[in-house]
Amino acid sequence: MTMELYCRAATLVFFTLLSFSYASSSSMYSELNPIKPRHSRLLRSAVQRETPTSQLSEIWTPLENQGWKPCDESRNKPTLPEKSEGYIQVFLDGGLNQQRMGICDAVAVAKILNATLVIPYLELNPVWRDSSSFMDIFDVDHFIDVLKDDISIVKELPEEYSWSTREYYALAIRDTRIKAAPVHASANWYLENVLPVLQSYGIAAISPFSHRLTFDNVPMDIQHLRCKVNFQALVFVPHIRTLGDALISRLRNPQPSNEEMSSNYLQEVTSSDDNKNAGKFVVLHLRFDKDMAAHSACDFGGGKAEKLALAKYRQVIWQGRVLNSQFTDEELRSQGRCPMTPEEVGLLLAAMGFDNSTHLYLASHKVYGGGARISTLRQLFPLMEDKKTLASSFERAQIKGKASLLAALDYYISVHSDIFISASPGNMHNALVGHRTYLNLKTIRPNMALMGQLFLNKTMEWSEFEHAVVEGHENRQGQLRLRKPKQSIYTYPAPDCMCQA
């Protein structure tokens, strides 16, 4: 076994043991140390609140037309070049949304190089241990069909290049591997450094490939192509879309019975055409896992035991390389650098006008602190649902243990919700802000600095808190923002992906 393979294997074993160890300690911690509300004064008022009809109506009102719409590309139908320069392989790491952006960039690079793209290889995530492939997550035939006039795509390499595998590149330095692609490289960089490899060998493998194409000074046709991939070509596999539609229908048309759903319930719901009385729902991406909590170096009210556990976790994972730990909790909060807890997100939603009749879908991985941490959020929003409460055991079995498919289901439901809110910025937040901007859908972006400062004030009355929250989020509910230099085209799709109506 080579040193590189040994290191990779050791890393996987380490993360597996670490995950098991911390999962066990986290569950024990939750049982032995009940998590108390940090903002009891506000919480009592929020539970007793009565939201005025006018405020409730306003919060659910869809966005008005903002003067932008997806560009009509039908007039400029692309044509495939007669000859491909060779095959491009990319190896994508990260979670689902980082991989999604990488796929879009890979198509753009293939177009720049006039190369044939091999369906991207998704690396095994060492934390989530998910081995799902591109074809497990995305509808590959749809992907190829939508892009058939833009670039040539193959599902597998022809026999003569079958040697070009992940294992082949792990064993030694190879002339066909491009390892030094800089972050946000220009189109010219690919023409100067990758095209010669293609012309010499007929194939080039780029690894790693994440954030490897600049967002600025790119030809407009390439920008449009990236948009086309993200918003048209990348759709999830049929069974994820079908399950997503079923859960959306259940959110909009709650069933009166709590009896166990049968395996054919999915078909019964999705075949229903009665949407006249469909209700509205909001998706909350509650990004509060142990990694987020530890990396932020903030205090979340779990006492000395929690502080010690997070400090140890931080030391093991990042060996002290967490700059936030140099600041006090008050400094971090006032700067908006602390993730909001479920309790704090619940207070934000309550202040904005969502009442206890709100149907709330929780899109999230495991929450640090478990059910104890979510209890205050559920107290404010008793109609809160998630994958476990909405889907039958039969349906859940189809995606159990597949982090990418679970994330895909959450993404699909989030795109189709009336309102989306993410508790903290991140890849999913960025991807959905962009996707929902493209569709002109309401998306609440929490003002993290404001919320941090409000929560530091322990004497604030509910009316004052409510007024500050509403005022501080008037222009953070999906209003279109034009992309600035260096910003991501996938988060800010205008003006690159959208045209003025």
The description of the largest β-sheet is: 6 strands, parallel
Shape estimate:
globular
- Could you tell me the radius of gyration in angstroms? 24 Å
Number of strands: 13
Measured by DSSP, the beta-strand proportion falls in 5-15%
Number of helices: 23
Distance between the termini: 60 Å
Oligomer description: single chain
Domains, number: 2
Average pLDDT rating: 87
Class by alpha and beta content: alpha/beta
Helix content bin: 40-55%
Which residue ranges are poorly predicted, with pLDDT under 50 across at least 5 consecutive positions?
A: 1-32, 268-277
Layout of secondary structure:
Blueprint: H1 3-32, H2 40-47, H3 53-60, E1 68-70, E2 87-92, H4 96-113, E3 116-118, E4 121-122, H5 134-137, H6 140-146, E5 153-154, H7 166-171, E6 177-178, H8 187-193, H9 195-201, E7 203-206, H10 220-233, H11 238-252, H12 265-270, E8 281-285, H13 290-296, H14 303-318, H15 329-334, H16 342-352, E9 359-363, H17 370-380, E10 384-385, H18 387-390, H19 393-397, H20 403-415, E11 419-422, H21 427-438, E12 442-444, H22 448-456, H23 462-472, E13 498-500
Parallel strand pairs: 2-3, 2-4, 2-7, 3-5, 6-7, 8-9, 8-11, 9-10, 11-12
Antiparallel strand pairs: 1-13
Helix pairs in contact: 4-10, 11-20, 13-14, 16-17, 16-23
